[in-house]
Amino acid sequence: MRTHLNTLFVTTQGTYLASRGQTVAIRSERKTIAQFPLHTLEGIVCFGRVGCSPACMAACAGHGVAVSFLSLHGRFLAAVHGPTTGNVLLRRKQFRAADDPAVALDVSRNLVAAKVANARSVLLRAARDASEDDSPRRDALLAQARRLGASLVEIAGGSDLNQIRGLEGEAATQYFLAFNPMQTSPPKAGAFEFTRRTRQPPLDRINALLSFLYTLLLHDIRSACESVGLDPCVGFLHADRPGKPSLALDLMEEFRPVLADRLAFSMINRHQITPEGFHVLETGAVLMDDDTRKTVLVAWQRRKQDTLTHPFLGEPTTIGLLPHLQARLMSRWLRGELDAYPPFLWKG
User: What are phi and psi of 49, to 5 degrees?
Assistant: First the structure.
């Protein structure tokens, strides 16, 4: 079992990361404002105008600490990793499996089914938590959950990869229809009202929040793939494209509803974030302000410390370790130790 380590998020503009012995020092205006031992870190994520010395990058790479650079508003720019780890035979098996249409279909079907099942569980949990005098909201959630249940039957019978992708898109559309009922209070226009999924740029507050959380989740999953020796860019469900972390995106599908979406609506319903914490640009793009971004980062780190029992392994674990466990299960399947890849299924 891997020790649960931390991700360091650097959001203060104008700061600079430097290597100091076996630590990372964060400097601002020629003063060290924080210092972290490398062995306690799993990754470093830098937002916006944050610099990093070559010596610090080398030290992080040597300790297996991935350093990611994002725009101020969460768009991935670049990442620095150490030497590729893991048995080269594992990656060879991964490449051969990805090139086999039958294998890619089986894995993609499992991944999409897990995503839809987890989305359904999220809606059912929200319906159970709804107050008894809020029957319209509860009924709306249950109706969409039933539609997702019907989608699971179609996905199980899917015989073509493009068909699976199409069914995933249809199920996502049904799931998105429940985003307004997921809020305990009816969303007001211009606040957290959701109409459709938009990205690059997000065009409303819900999309801005989800895109930011998905970026954080993708960072963790990509690091998990690297840590077990998998190539994060060679996947099954998502098509190959230069620079696209297809395998990380594949594994992220099963986690989106549980780790990102539930956290987003929890923060909204608990008023941890407010509509005033977002800015609407002249182009229509919606961006989070600094305080909201920090609030989301703190909630994300706390969420990763929550514990549950892994449905396949039957062992207690923290939520933050789930990407590492799933990446390890993926590698075990590729090595032939498992008959199939067991996706994560949340028991809500």
Answer: -85, 75
